[in-house]
């Protein structure tokens, strides 16, 4: 990464950052004692926080989980670079809530009733198919790994702006390594309770920073009118790479399909990610889940305001005239330039801690998947809950080390490409999971072939997308021509439609042959459970320990 | 309800799948999709609000509207589930 004119290390920012970071680390370790359960060795305890989080804890946990540090950096960076096109994150995070309101309560209920820890557990139980469950588990793990790596990229952007770490080699990576070791240690010891507690600190900091930023920075820059005027001028300039304007303040007629499909596809994909499912399944009751879906949009509002920071960065002249400026640094640089140094430290801490919460949850979710759907399914079917927990803890470390390897060893661009692919991939598990929550109509083989078709098509199309101004490059974006319609749209949605079509056609074909159906271990009542196992449609009962 | 029951189960009460409440809820959850996926309806600069172009403040306003809709659905569904539950227990001979 190119070091910028950030004026070296600012002692005040750094001190504030470090104090907050250390405080949060303490919270992470204390978390293991928070609401300790009678059976601490069960995977429900380490991997789902005892399935007992109420509305407030769930709200912080899910908010801290879904609105990641990378989002805080990348969404304004996209707006900074391209204008309106980057704003699709706002309709995306609006639509996700009404969408998941339809099926998450059913998912929570069946998981509570049957003791499912992962989405792949559900696929296994509902369709009775080991191969379909393996497909769901592998997709989840693959999609999560680069996502964790990007959280570390988020921390790195902040560390770079603060100018800490040596200029090259090991010294430069040292702060990241320390942050990482701390994260790994408390996730190992406290499980999901650690990010749940830390999320309180993180989200509070983020809300404060965003509210201050959207009021204070425009005042300093001469108001929103002035900011958008500057942004319009800057975005209209010709980009040397493509020979076209860099971006625009509104989506042109040609960009509208990709804007809408990106928003819709991302909304559909979000709760197929293992870390989102983990956050939901940790809730105490079905009502807790529903109530949260009604109040989580507060985070969407914050993200929307945050994305406006991209325009403020343009107006403030961040990166102006710097050759090859890394847009990911737009927001940290803006904070550095605009805020007094102590508050810049708070803002940096918000982003840094903001990376730790989702990174912890993601590694726990990937570990749960590996343990339940690969280790127990294929290697040790008679694993005790204590063995499951032990394996999951170790896997959470391995997963994080893998992510660290991505960031340090391999080109960072590679993690970004993979994360892009991850979104396309994870969307391909949507038909099996969401349709499965409502009916057993689909045949498991048909779903598996549909999934494979969507994965193959999505990967191939993404491979063929060249980056702007670099012909013959690959994985340059996530939008491509939609066959038949002839518009540019999100590849994930096109692949999803193909996936669904294949699944429907094959199900009809297979049914004509009247095959022997695999057993479904769920019954309709499982999907309506309010809180206790096997007690459909009963009012709140204290959840009994499994 | 397909409860595994050892004594011959009483005929399961038939509650309608489509109710007025559910229609209202589907409408409230569906409107944001129509509004936001119809990009050309809001892809313009004016009128501005405190200097923010229409494209941006309109979508930000939908964050709030959509949240209110979802909250309304939460209340409606909860009320309906309570009444369905009451009906179920009433019809079941105990």
The CATH class of the domain at 40-412 in chain A, by name, is Mainly Alpha
Tally the helices of chain B. Answer: 2
Q: From the 3D coordinates, which CATH architecture of the domain at 40-412 in chain A would you assign?
A: Up-down Bundle
What share of the residues of chain B lie within helices? 55-70%
Pfam family, one (chain B): DUF3311
Protein name (chain B): DUF3311 domain-containing protein
Transmembrane segments (chain B): 23-43, 55-77
InterPro entries (chain B): DUF3311
Strand and helix map with partners:
The complex is a heterodimer of chains A (546) and B (94).
Chain A: H1 11-30, H2 43-48, H3 55-66, H4 69-82, H5 89-101, H6 104-114, H7 119-127, H8 130-162, H9 169-190, H10 193-221, H11 223-236, H12 256-270, H13 274-281, H14 286-295, H15 297-307, H16 309-315, H17 330-338, H18 341-379, H19 385-409, H20 412-427, H21 430-438, H22 444-463, E1 479-481, E2 488-490, H23 491-512
Antiparallel strand pairs in A: 1-2
Helix pairs in contact in A: 1-9, 1-10, 1-18, 3-10, 3-13, 3-14, 3-18, 4-8, 4-16, 4-18, 5-12, 5-15, 6-14, 7-8, 7-21, 8-18, 8-19, 8-20, 9-18, 9-19, 10-11, 10-18, 11-16, 12-20, 13-18, 16-17, 17-18, 18-19, 20-23, 22-23
Chain B: H1 20-37, H2 54-91
Helix pairs in contact in B: 1-2
Polypeptide structure, described:
Chain A is an all-alpha fold. Chain A has a domain at 40-412: Up-down Bundle (Sodium/glucose cotransporter), CATH 1.20.1730.10. Chain A has 23 helices and 2 strands. In chain A, strands 1-2 form a two-stranded antiparallel ribbon. Mean pLDDT of chain A is 83; it is low at 1-7 and 533-546. By secondary structure, chain B is mainly alpha-helical. Chain B has a domain at 41-94. Helix content of chain B is 60%, strand content 0%. Chain B has 2 helices and no strands. Chain B has helices spanning 20-37, 54-91. Residues 1-6 of chain B have low confidence and may be disordered. Classes of the chains: A mainly alpha (546), B mainly alpha (94). At the A-B interface, helix 5, helix 11, helix 12, helix 14 and helix 15 of A face helix 1 and helix 2 of B. Chain B: Keywords: Membrane, Transmembrane, Transmembrane helix. Chain B: The chain crosses the membrane at residues 23-43, 55-77. Chain B: It comes from Streptacidiphilus cavernicola. Chain B: This is DUF3311 domain-containing protein. Chain A: InterPro entries: Na/Glc_symporter_sf (IPR038377), Na/solute_symporter (IPR001734), Sodium:Solute_Symporter (IPR050277).
């Amino acid at each position: 990464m190119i070091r910028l004119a950030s004026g070296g290390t600012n002692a005040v920012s750094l001190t504030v950052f470090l104090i907050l970071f250390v405080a949060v680390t303490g919270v992470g370790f204390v978390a293991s004692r928070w609401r300790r359960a009678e059976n601490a060795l069960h995977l429900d305890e380490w991997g789902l926080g005892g399935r007992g989080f109420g509305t407030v804890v769930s709200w912080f946990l899910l908010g801290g989980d879904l609105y990641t540090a990378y989002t805080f950096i990348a969404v304004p960076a996209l707006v900074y670079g391209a204008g309106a096109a980057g704003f699709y994150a706002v309709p995306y995070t609006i639509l996700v809530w009404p969408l998941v309101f339809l099926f998450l309560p059913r998912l929570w209920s069946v998981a509570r009733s049957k003791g499912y820890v992962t989405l792949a557990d559900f696929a296994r139980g509902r369709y009775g198919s080991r191969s379909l469950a393996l497909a769901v588990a592998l997709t989840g793990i693959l999609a999560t790994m680069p996502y964790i790596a990007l959280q570390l990229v988020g921390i790195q952007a902040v560390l770079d702006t603060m100018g800490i770490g040596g200029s090259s080699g090991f010294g430069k990576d040292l702060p990241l390594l320390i942050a990482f070791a701390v994260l790994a240690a408390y996730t190992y010891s406290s499980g999901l309770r650690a990010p749940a507690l830390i999320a309180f600190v993180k989200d509070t900091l983020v809300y404060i920073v965003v509210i201050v930023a959207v009021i204070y920075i425009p005042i300093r820059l001469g108001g929103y009118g002035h900011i958008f005027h500057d942004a319009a001028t800057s975005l209209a300039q010709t980009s040397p790479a493509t020979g076209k304007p860099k971006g625009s303040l509104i989506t042109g007629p040609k960009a509208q399909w990709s804007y809408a499909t990106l928003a819709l596809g991302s909304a559909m994909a979000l709760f197929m990610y293992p870390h989102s499912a983990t956050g939901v399944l940790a809730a105490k009751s079905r009502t807790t889940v529903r109530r949260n879906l009604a109040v989580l949009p507060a985070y969407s509002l914050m993200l929307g305001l945050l994305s406006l920071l991209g325009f403020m960065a343009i107006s403030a002249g961040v990166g102006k005239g710097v050759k090859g400026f890394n847009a990911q640094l737009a927001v940290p640089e803006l904070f550095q330039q605009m805020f007094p140094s102590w508050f810049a430290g708070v803002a940096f801490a918000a982003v840094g801690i903001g990376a730790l919460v989702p990174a912890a949850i993601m590694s726990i979710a990937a570990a749960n998947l590996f343990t339940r759907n690969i280790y127990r399914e294929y290697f040790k079917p008679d694993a005790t809950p204590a063995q499951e927990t032990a394996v999951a803890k170790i896997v959470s470390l391995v997963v994080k080390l893998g992510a660290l390897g991505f960031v340090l060893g391999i080109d960072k661009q590679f993690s970004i490409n993979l994360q892009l692919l991850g979104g396309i991939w994870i969307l391909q598990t949507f038909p099996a999971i969401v349709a499965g929550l409502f009916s057993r109509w689909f045949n498991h083989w048909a779903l598996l072939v549909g999934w494979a078709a969507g994965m193959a098509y999505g990967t191939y199309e993404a491979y063929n997308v060249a980056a702007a101004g670099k012909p013959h490059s690959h994985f340059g974006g996530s939008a491509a021509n939609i066959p038949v319609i002839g518009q540019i749209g999100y590849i994930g949605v096109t692949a999803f439609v193909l996936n669904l079509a294949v699944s429907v056609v094959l199900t009809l074909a297979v049914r004509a042959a009247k095959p022997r159906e695999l057993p479904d271990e769920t019954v309709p009542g499982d999907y309506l459970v309010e809180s206790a196992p096997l007690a459909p449609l009963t009012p709140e009962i204290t959840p009994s320990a499994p | 309800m397909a409860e595994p029951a050892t004594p011959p189960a009483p005929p399961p009460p038939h509650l309608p799948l489509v109710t007025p409440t559910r229609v209202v809820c589907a409408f409230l959850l569906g409107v944001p999709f129509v509004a936001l996926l119809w990009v050309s309806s809001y892809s313009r600069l004016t009128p501005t609000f405190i200097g923010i172009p229409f494209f941006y403040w309109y979508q930000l306003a939908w964050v709030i509207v959509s949240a209110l809709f979802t909250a309304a659905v939460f209340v409606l569904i909860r009320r309906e589930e309570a009444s369905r539950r009451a009906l179920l227990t009433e019809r079941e001979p105990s």
